[in-house]
Design brief:
The protein folds into 2 domains: 30 residues; 36 residues. The longest helix has 30 residues. With 92 residues, the chain is mainly α. It is built from 3 helices and no strands.
């Protein structure tokens, strides 16, 4: 009798684990995020600004460094603006 109960318990645990494993495997793709990619036109804020003839502002250069107190030097500033220019060329 004890052996039969032990087998039933083991069978129940295996079936419960199977249900949990299947629910985890099937649920992950349903919860995955979807990246719509780059949006152009009026959905894109920058595109809307360009359409209205408003120049898109450059991102600010944060200075001084909050941790070290170091300021940005002219070479770093030139590199920063060069990066902005190159990124703009990729979009056009």
């Amino acid at each position: 009798m004890f052996n039969k109960q032990k087998k039933e318990l083991a069978h129940r645990q295996i079936s419960q684990l199977t249900v949990v494993a299947l629910s985890i495997l099937l649920e992950n793709p349903a919860l995955a995020e979807h990246d719509p990619g780059i949006r152009g036109g009026l959905n894109n804020t920058a595109g809307y600004l360009q359409q209205r003839g408003i120049k898109i502002p450059h991102p600010p250069v944060i200075s001084p460094n909050p941790k070290t107190g170091a300021t940005i030097n002219p070479n770093e500033l030139a590199s920063f603006f060069e990066g902005i220019q190159r990124a703009g060329q990729l979009v056009d």
